[in-house]
Write a structure and sequence with these properties.
This protein has about 525 residues and is an alpha/beta fold. Helix content is about 40%, strand content about 20%. It has 16 helices and 18 strands. Helix 7 links the parallel strand 7 and strand 8. Helix 1 packs antiparallel against helix 10 and helix 10 packs parallel to helix 14. The protein binds 3-methyl-2-oxobutanoic acid (KIV) and zinc ion. The site of 3-methyl-2-oxobutanoic acid (KIV) has 10 residues, from strand 6 and strand 7.
């Protein structure tokens, strides 16, 4: 029996970006969008165009670049948001507007201060306006999980009549459990008059760790679109993770009457890219994409897998992109091998000059490290793109001293300013450890007044010559940013990450969160 299609709607670039500090630049979003297209995601929610001019431009650029996936823009149910989303997705070969309004009593009374009748009216008007821009209009009832069932049916009936083609049912606060969520989907599909004319969608948050389970339950009950993110990134505890949903549906094909068109071998590269760009590390025991997801520690398990893989493995690591991803380059690799590996990884540099700079850095790294893995290349390119010329601070050189019985000391030379006004400054500082001394030295120059919320180091690959990838999370005046840096010397990586975070704090656009 041929399977029905399950639409994968990826919202890494919108809901994922609502994670603290995960805001991305236009170029970073484009890189992720290209990887999502390569992975054959059906719909890419590229952002919330009304949030800021930068968000509008990012959605527009993605709409121009992406050909094989539908590009979607989010809009609250008001004229301005819908118009902005409509303009932003205009260049897309296939474009969608996703408009939403809250339908639960608590959201309508306390947040929107609107009556149920006003909410229905706004929803219908937004869908009608959206249909003037595209035939592909999705409507979401925010906080559907805590909405009255009869009212939900009324809203959905009205927006379907107004022209909505996808109806999304969000568990905005991650409150449901699988049995209840599946049942709600089943009852909605039964009760809403024109239910068979639209695609039913589920959008679950992970506050109780049940986002994937709830999404799968909704699929078993008839949903044919799942909204999810790479690595489960998203507001608070995150969204349903794309890789888990896709692999559950595929691996348990005996239970599901639908399947996705996802090229699963692109999952691990996508996970790496998102982690590297956002600074959100993937926990080692994370399903599918965690470093230990296919590692067998116990002797009994190892023995079993060696004798017959399926004794302990329900999926093959290579099917989700683990092995494809490890081809190495080395010290003797030339420019053309480097260029072709970048191409295979889907990394496009803006110019020949950018390629030359990246190749120079690759050679420097190859002098320090015997083998260069794909992960190193992602980190290297990340470094290139997160520290472009126009940013205020750059690390020129560094020296650290750490000796038993003495306070660790850092001496840094930073290049500060822009264009003609750029000058080099040398600073010294002592600290509790070399990283502390480094950050204090940078702050002597920047005096940013920010608070350090997080400092984390991960080895990008294995071995003592591996590059350390550092994430630094800074907060200032209510804004939170993540900075990343990678180097075989983790103190240098830390300095790069701190400087990257400072640059983001300086550059960051003010933007509106759709749900606030
Ligand atoms: O969680 C939510 O309700 C949302 C909507 C905008 C779909 O993200
Ligand atoms: Zn959400």
């Amino acid at each position: 029996m041929s399977k029905q299609h399950l639409t994968i709607f990826d919202t890494t670039l919108r809901d994922g970006e609502q994670s603290p500090g995960a805001a991305m630049t236009k170029d970073e979003k484009l890189r992720i969008a290209r990887q999502l297209e390569r992975m054959r995601v059906d719909v890419i929610e590229a952002g919330f165009p009304a949030a800021s001019p930068g968000d509008f431009e990012a959605v527009k650029a993605i709409a121009e670049a992406i050909k094989e996936s539908t590009v979607c823009g989010l809009a609250r149910a008001n004229d301005n948001d819908v118009q902005k989303a409509g303009e932003a997705i205009k260049p897309a070969r296939s474009g969608r507007i996703h408009t939403f309004i809250a339908t639960s009593p608590i959201h309508m009374e306390k947040k929107l201060r609107m009556s149920p009748d006003q909410v229905v009216e706004a929803a219908v008007a937004a869908v009608k306006l959206a249909r003037r821009y595209t035939d592909d209009v999705e409507f979401s009832a925010e906080d559907a999980v805590r909405s009255d069932f009869a009212f939900l049916c009324r809203v959905f009936d009205a927006v379907i009549k107004a022209g909505a083609t996808t109806i999304n049912v969000p568990d905005t606060v991650g409150y449901s459990i699988p049995e209840v969520w599946g049942e709600r989907m089943r009852q909605l599909i039964e009760a809403v008059p024109a239910a068979d004319k639209v695609i039913w969608s589920t959008h679950c948050h992970n506050d109780l760790g049940l986002a994937v389970a709830n999404s799968l339950s909704a699929v078993l009950a008839g949903a044919r679109q799942v909204e999810c993110t790479i690595n489960g990134l998203g507001e608070r505890a995150g969204n349903a993770s794309l890789e888990e949903v896709v692999m559950a549906v595929r691996t348990r094909g005996d239970l599901f009457t639908c399947d996705t068109r996802i090229d699963a071998t692109q999952i691990v590269p996508a996970s790496r890219l998102v982690s590297q760009i956002t600074g959100y590390a993937v926990q080692p025991n994370k399903a599918v994409v965690g470093a230990n997801a296919f590692a067998h520690e116990s002797g009994i398990h190892q023995d079993g897998v060696l004798k017959h893989r399926e004794t302990y493995e329900i999926m093959r690591a290579e099917d989700v992109g683990w092995t494809n991803n490890r081809l190495t380059l080395g010290k003797l690799s030339g420019r053309s091998a480097f260029r072709s590996r970048l191409k295979e990884l889907g990394i496009e540099l803006a110019s020949e000059e950018a390629l030359n700079v990246a190749f120079g850095h690759f050679k420097e790294l190859a002098d320090k490290k015997r083998e260069i893995f794909d992960e190193d290349i992602y980190a290297l390119i990340g470094d290139e793109t997160v520290t472009p010329d126009h940013e205020r601070y750059r690390l020129v050189s560094s020296m650290f001293h750490s000796e038993t019985g003495e306070s660790p000391r850092a001496r840094l030379t930073l290049s500060v300013g822009r264009g003609e006004a750029r000058v080099e400054q040398q600073v010294d500082a002592v600290g509790g450890g070399p990283v502390d001394a480094t950050f204090k030295a940078i702050e002597k120059v920047a005096a940013s007044g920010s608070d350090l919320l997080l400092y984390s180091v991960n080895a990008i690959t294995t071995g003592t010559d591996a590059q350390g990838e550092v994430t630094v999370r800074l907060s200032k005046d209510g804004r939170i940013v993540n900075g990343q840096g990678a180097d075989t010397d983790i103190i240098v990586a830390s300095a790069k990450a701190y400087i990257n975070a400072l640059n983001k704090l300086e550059a960051g656009p003010e933007r509106v969160n759709p749900q606030v």
